[in-house]
Each structure stands twice: as structure tokens, then as C-alpha cells.
Amino acid sequence: MTQEALALRLDITLKHANEIINEKTSLTPEMAIRLELVFWWKASYWMNLQSKYDELNARIASEAALSLQVPIFENFKDCYKDLVSSNYCPNVRKVEEKIQALLDFFQVVSLDSINKLPQAHFRKSTKVHVSNESVAAWLRVGEKEAEKIEVAPFDSDKIIKFLPELRMQTRSPEGLGVFLNKKWKDLWVKFIFVKLFKNAPVNGATRWINGTPIVQLSDRGKDYGILLFTLFHELWHVILHGWESFLDMTECSGERKEREADDFAQNNLIPESFQFHAILNCLYENPEQISDFSKRVGVDEAHVAGRIMKEKNIYNDVRLRKYSKQISIIAP
């Protein structure tokens, strides 16, 4: 059939027929119905062809746009390696493939959008380099792990009643993770462990997603004492500062809510009834008494030794360092 004949049968201009044949104009539902009358194929068939054609063109344009994001990817190079080692992104060679993997991981259409996503508020240390991209990737891993956990609606009273039991469990470093896993549903808090990412010196983070608190911890410093303090610190954010997000990257801060969380962690790991400050000097001068004191309190001796070093501002005392314990959080 000639273009002239087609235009006549469809009751359109020759120019319009030419544009349809040469893919210069899209088929409308009205035109699909006209084509159905001329060629007997249903209008849905013609609209399906148009839809597939449009999708193909959109994908070609999208793939071409990936090359424009190559310069931005430079900021994601370090965290991409961490995501590969955590099995969240494929180990591919082409930069464009890595960019597409990141877009899929973050569920965004542009790398520029990642730093605009809602994140936990955090305090940057002036002593270390912090990559916003690596922090975002670390947090995103926590989100994806949290999606695998089902818990009941949150109740802060349950957490407060649970704290003494949690403190006693700290004396078993190898079993703490298992213990928290079993307590997820009882506590109605999602506990997530994610290994430290390069240039994301994060101790822990607290966020609320869909009405559920998520406490995410890292293995920063590989120090069990730091992990315990961070755990109780983050729990205070959950209990008192509901619906707010916090990302803890430094050991100290002048912010009121951070001081409150620090005080809560200290007082619950070593309750005031044990008069820690009254015997601080004695413990420092006689570190062999740390084990007995930690047993009375019901907390791991690594935290007691770490607390002494912090109070004395002495972190290289070999007598105290021997009580430190190394941790290793396995990436999900």
C-alpha cells in the first residue's frame, strides 16, 4: 500500500502518514482505532507497539545519560568497593555498569540525588575525612537489612525494663549479636550491624523508618568497649528522642541531646549505685581490681577499662589496654 493510499484510508494528510511510517510521530489511541479499521489488528496491538517503541527509546537515552555521571562516580569509588565486598553491588569493570548498580542500590535515577535523600543528622569530625557518599552507602545497607526484619509496634517502656538484662549480656561479647537478634521482636527495635565503610567513620546511627526505630552499629575501632557505649547511646536516642535521626561519628559533642545520650550510656552501663567515681582512682592505680568490679556491676571489663581511660584522658596505658577486646562485625 502506498503512502497516498494509506493517507486516504486513514483520512489523514499525506504528511501525517509519512510521519507515522518514518517514526517521526507517535501513535495516539484515536489513530490506533483508525489502524484497526484499516488493517483489522486491534487498537491495543498498535498501542502496545508504540509503548514498546517508546520504552526502547527511553532506555537508550537513559544508558547514554550514564556517561554524563562518570565524573560524579569518582566520589563513590571507595564506597562502591565496600558495597561489592558486602555483596550489595556486582564486581563489574565498566564505570557505566557500576553507576547503574549504584542507582539500583539507592533506588534513584541520578547519583546527584543520593546526597539529597533524607539521612540521619551527623556531626563531622575535623580530624578525619568524611565522605557523604560513603556514609549514605553505609546507611543504605542498614535500611536494606532492616527490611528483612519484622517487629511489632514500638514501646519504649519495654526497652527501659530490658536494659539491666542487656548490661549483663555484655559480659559475653561473642554472644551479644545473637542475643540482640533473638530480642528483636521482643524489643520492637531493629538492631543492625554493618561493617565500617572507608571514609565513613561512623560509630552508630539511629533512625525511624515507617514508625520503627533502627539502631545501626559499626565495628569502628574494632573495640568492644566502644561498641557497648554506642549501643546504649543509640538506645537513649530511641527512648527519649523519638522520631529523630542521629548519626554518631565523634566520641564527644557539645550538643545537648548527645550529652544526654552519653550520660544515659554511662549511667546504665555502670549505674551510679556502684559509685564509680568514688573508686575511679583506686581502679586506675590497681587495674587488677577491674575484673571483680565489672562482675559486681554486671558489665564487661572492656567497658570499665575504657571508662577509666576516658575519665583519665589516658588511652595508651598498657595496664588498662589489656582489658580491651577486639570485635569483628561480619558484613551482611
Topology:
Layout: H1 3-10, H2 14-21, H3 29-39, H4 43-66, H5 70-73, H6 77-85, H7 95-106, E1 121-122, H8 132-146, H9 156-169, H10 173-187, E2 190-193, E3 204-209, E4 212-217, H11 224-240, E5 246-248, H12 256-269, H13 276-285, H14 290-297, H15 301-312, H16 318-321
Parallel strand pairs: 1-5, 2-4
Antiparallel strand pairs: 3-4, 3-5
Helix pairs in contact: 1-2, 3-4, 6-8, 9-10, 9-11, 11-12, 11-15
Mean pLDDT, all residues: 85
Unreliable spans: none
- What is the structural class? alpha/beta
Order of adjacent strands in the largest pleated sheet: 1-5-3-4-2
Number of helices: 16
- From the spread of the alpha carbons, the general shape counts as elongated
**Hey, roughly how much beta strand do the residues contain?**
5-15%
N to C succession of SSEs: HHHHHHHEHHHEEEHEHHHHH
Q: How would you portray this structure in words?
A:
This protein folds into 2 domains: 3-67, lambda repressor-like DNA-binding domains (434 Repressor (Amino-terminal Domain), Orthogonal Bundle); 132-321, no CATH class. Helices cover 56% and strands 6% of the residues. It has 16 helices and 5 strands. It has helices at residues 3-10, 14-21, 29-39, 43-66, 70-73, 77-85, 95-106, 132-146, 156-169, 173-187, 224-240, 256-269, 276-285, 290-297, 301-312, 318-321; strands at 121-122, 190-193, 204-209, 212-217, 246-248. A 5-stranded mixed sheet has the order 1-5-3-4-2, with helices on both faces. A hairpin with a 2-residue loop joins strand 3 (204-209) and strand 4. Helix 1 (3-10) crosses helix 2 (14-21), helix 9 (156-169) packs antiparallel against helix 10 and helix 11 (224-240) packs across helix 15 (301-312).
